[in-house]
Amino acid sequence: MSESTEPRNFVYLGQRYSSDGHRYVAVAVLNAAGDTIEKEQHYSFKKAYEYAIGCVYAGAEFGDKNCVGLDCGSFREEWKDTGRVIEWKAKDEEARARVALAKREQDAKGSTELESIMAPLQRVYARMNARGDHLGCSALEQAVVRMLRRKPKQP
């Protein structure tokens, strides 16, 4: 049996980042009259919505645990409480900064993996270079480039 939903206006609050590392979208569902925030709800982040933080949208249906049509909202007005809007924008910026930091950390981890893969080749290259084996160094460089350009083997 599926949960029932009802159409409600909502205020887009932006992105949030949970303590366990998941990114989600925050919205404030308004009461039936559309003038009071009834509850704040969070949904899995599937894509970046083209909504402005602190603006009221219509077009979604909300239940106790789910939402339908969140990506089909249409602009109605700006939320009147600018203090709350500033707070929501600050939380969104914090979430975006955490996502960017996590991406930079992941990118740095990838370069560490590459360095560990290349370390044995670097030692061989250094030994050949110390012996003055310039042809060997050149051959190793070309072999590495050929390997990079080769299509990976399927497991």
- Count of discrete structural domains: 2
Runs in which pLDDT lies below 50 for 5 or more consecutive residues are: none
Proportion of strand residues = 25-35%
Average pLDDT, rounded to a whole number, is 88
Shape: elongated
- Count of DSSP H/I helices: 2
Largest sheet: 6 strands, antiparallel
Helical fraction equals 40-55%
Q: Report Rg.
A: 26 Å
- The end-to-end span amounts to 43 Å
Question: How many DSSP-defined strands?
Answer: 6
N-to-C SSE series? EEEEEEHH
* Helix and strand composition category: alpha+beta
Secondary structure elements and their pairing?
Layout: E1 6-17, E2 23-30, E3 37-44, E4 55-62, E5 67-68, E6 74-78, H1 82-131, H2 134-149
Helix pairs in contact: 1-2
Structural account:
The chain is of the alpha+beta class. Helix content is 43%, strand content 28%. The protein contains 2 helices and 6 strands. Helix 1 runs antiparallel to helix 2. The protein is elongated. It starts with 5 loop residues before the first strand and ends in a 6-residue tail after the last helix. The model has no long low-confidence stretch (mean pLDDT 88).
Question: What are the main properties of this structure?
Answer:
single chain, 155 residues, alpha+beta, 6-stranded antiparallel sheet, 28% strand, elongated
